[in-house]
């Protein structure tokens, strides 16, 4: 029997290719486990890896072996019952026992599980597979990461077009000075001595010839120092600097009136976390603005957004007005990709719901890429839901969904951001 395992492109001894092939083969089971993990996990570890359990019978490696039939010989070590030529009877049907425990489960067929650990990146890739941001075609260029070529000092290697002449000549001069400084000093001393001897009557001719010979040797040595060497060459160095061209802002709006209990807020928080993780996979720079409201709206930090509670009624339009003001002041629509997500239990003053319709239609929907509204309640829908539903019929960048329990979060999220048919 022979097993073939592909170990090409392995990183640090790990079978990278086989790992990806394994994930592809069992993607259905893995995606189901990832989907279940979203509702099972706490908010703080929603983007960590995951352990996947797969039945052992499903993970057998393909193998080549001889098929049944034919005549063959086998050697069974430790045989004390049979001799050559004896025929071995088959065991009675159903009498074979596996290698596991002898007693079976009293509530169904038992099976061993294979535990497979996936990384954070693999988890997020499977979590958001087949999802996309609607209306992204209008801003496709802003999604790309742009680079700008900038100067980054000098380097010893490069192409001729990038040679820095001044730096190269400066390096050449320094090298020539270092290599010939002592020789030039000696040459100057000998030349002065030669001049003095030549001006002195009756000087020895042999000494003059000797000094002239030394001067010639020194000049030859100095002349052999190359004017420029490959060691002297300096090239302008250029690097790619990333330019933050893809920037987005996510407005999180939530009702914090007395009707919104902590369990409802926890459901909304899980939805916001999923949305944030999803947007960060598309946009490199993402800012989040938290706006809470009851009868009045206020921009707050994350802690106050999720865990503060107020009493009294609800006026949703106050949050929409504040969002529009912040967007105009800090996030121009021609520079930012704007997304908004609103969570509420549906309570609102009946007279305020038409005002919300007007604010969305006139000020918000023309500027945002996508506006998602989730209503977290087990009661019947009220006027706010109906107003938003009417807007959904006329605008493609608004979506409304209903969440009853925590298990509905991920299915609703997938419904909001599923890939649009072409």
TrEMBL record:
Mark out the compositionally biased spans (Basic and acidic residues).
Answer: 71-92
Q: Where is this region: Disordered?
A: 58-111
What InterPro entries does the database record attribute to this sequence? UPF0229
Which Pfam families would you find in this protein's record?
A: DUF444
**What's the domain of life for this entry?**
Bacteria
Name the protein family: Belongs to the UPF0229 family.
Matching entries from PANTHER family are given as:
UPF0229 PROTEIN YEAH
Protein name in UniProt: UPF0229 protein L2764_23625
């Amino acid at each position: 029997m022979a097993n073939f395992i592909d170990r090409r492109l392995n990183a640090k001894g790990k079978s990278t290719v086989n790992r990806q092939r394994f994930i592809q083969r069992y993607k259905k089971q893995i995606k189901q486990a990832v989907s279940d993990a979203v509702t099972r996990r706490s908010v703080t570890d929603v983007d960590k890896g995951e352990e996947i359990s797969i039945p052992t019978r499903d993970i057998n490696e393909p193998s080549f072996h001889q098929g049944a039939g034919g005549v063959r010989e086998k050697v069974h070590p430790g045989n004390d019952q049979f001799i050559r030529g004896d025929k071995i009877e088959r065991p009675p049907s159903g009498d074979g026992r596996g290698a596991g425990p002898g007693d079976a489960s009293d509530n169904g067929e038992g099976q061993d599980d294979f535990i497979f650990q996936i990384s954070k990146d693999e988890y997020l890739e499977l979590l958001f597979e087949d999802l996309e941001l609607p209306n992204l075609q209008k801003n496709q260029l802003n999604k790309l990461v742009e680079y700008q070529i900038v100067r980054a000092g000098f380097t010893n290697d490069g192409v001729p077009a990038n040679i820095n002449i001044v730096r190269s000549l400066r390096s050449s001069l320094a090298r020539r000075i270092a290599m010939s400084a002592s020789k030039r000093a000696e040459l100057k001393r000998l030349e002065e001595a030669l001049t003095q001897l030549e001006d002195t009557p009756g000087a020895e001719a042999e000494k003059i010839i000797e000094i002239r010979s030394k001067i010639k040797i020194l000049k030859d040595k100095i002349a052999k120092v190359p004017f420029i060497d490959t060691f002297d060459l300096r090239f302008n160095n250029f690097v790619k600097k990333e330019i933050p061209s893809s920037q987005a802002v996510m407005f999180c709006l939530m009702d914090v009136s007395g009707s919104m209990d902590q369990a409802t807020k926890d459901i909304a928080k899980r939805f916001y976390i999923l949305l944030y993780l999803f947007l960060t996979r598309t946009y490199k720079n993402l800012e989040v603005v938290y706006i809470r409201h009851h009868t009045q709206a206020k921009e707050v930090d994350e802690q106050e957004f999720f865990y503060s509670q107020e009493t009294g009624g609800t006026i949703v339009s106050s949050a929409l007005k504040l969002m529009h003001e912040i967007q105009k002041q800090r996030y121009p629509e021609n520079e930012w990709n704007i997304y908004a997500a609103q969570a509420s239990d549906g309570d609102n003053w009946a007279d305020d719901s038409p005002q919300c319709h007007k604010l969305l239609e006139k000020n918000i929907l023309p500027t945002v890429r996508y506006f998602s509204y989730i209503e977290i309640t087990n009661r019947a829908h009220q006027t706010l839901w109906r107003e938003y539903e009417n807007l959904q019929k006329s605008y493609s960048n608004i979506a409304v969904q209903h969440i009853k329990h925590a298990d509905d979060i991920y299915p609703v999220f997938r419904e909001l951001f599923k890939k649009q048919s072409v």
